[in-house]
Amino acid sequence: MFTLDGIRQFHRWTHLCLNRAIDHLDTLPSDTYTKDIPGFGYPSIRDQVIHLLGCEARWVHRLRDLPSGDWDPARWPTIADARALQSEVTEQTLDYLSTLTDLQLNTPTTLHFPDGDIAVRTPALVLHHVLTHAFHHKGQIVAMCRLLGHPAPDTDLNNFE
């Protein structure tokens, strides 16, 4: 059984790691943030960052049965915009968690998708997916930095308590 305290801690660690990656992005030449790099599903670092944050927001909205809005990366053109978005998304997730009990976190709920599809999942599973998904894209961001000649420092969990 997952606990709210455990999910909150996993969420905190994830965003601390993302902060390290975003801090590194702030040191790069500005044109590298939106430069397309072949071989990635989201071709620029900006697109990866916005996709990563957008997934957290969209899944939390889906858990709340709310519309998810427009996630065109062009709406957040700078790293400063991404930081502001990260704060907003983090706040929305923590607000959602404040509405749950441990039992509700582990109780299957019906999710409705824009295309009419329906799935039944626990909020714990959805949030676990969101947070592991963030590490997948953080890894792609780090790889992109390396390909652009700007290797990132260690951005993994071993730097935090």
Task: Compile the SSE list and pairings.
Blueprint: H1 4-25, H2 45-63, H3 79-97, H4 102-105, E1 109-112, E2 118-121, H5 123-147
Antiparallel strand pairs: 1-2
Helix pairs in contact: 1-3, 1-5, 2-3, 2-5
What are the key terms here?
5% strand, 5 helices, Four Helix Bundle (Hemerythrin (Met), subunit A), 161 residues, single chain, two-stranded antiparallel ribbon, mainly alpha
Task: Give a written overview of the molecule.
It is built from five helices and two strands. The protein is globular. The mean pLDDT is 95. With 161 residues, it is mainly α. It has a two-stranded antiparallel sheet. The protein has a single domain, classed as dinb family like domain (Four Helix Bundle (Hemerythrin (Met), subunit A)), CATH 1.20.120. It has helices at 4-25, 45-63, 79-97, 102-105, 123-147, and strands spanning 109-112, 118-121. 55% of the residues lie in helices and 5% in strands.
CATH C-level class: Mainly Alpha
Helix residue percentage: 55-70%
Query: Rg from C-alpha positions?
Result: 16 Å
User: CATH H level: which superfamily?
Assistant: dinb family like domain
Count every helix, treating DSSP H or I runs of 4 or more residues as helices: 5
Helix and strand pattern: HHHHEEH
User: What is the domain total for the residues?
Assistant: 1
Globally, the shape reads: globular
- In the CATH hierarchy, the architecture is Up-down Bundle
CATH third-tier fold name: Four Helix Bundle (Hemerythrin (Met), subunit A)
Q: What does the largest sheet look like?
A: 2 strands, antiparallel
Strand order of the largest sheet: 1-2
Low-confidence stretches: none
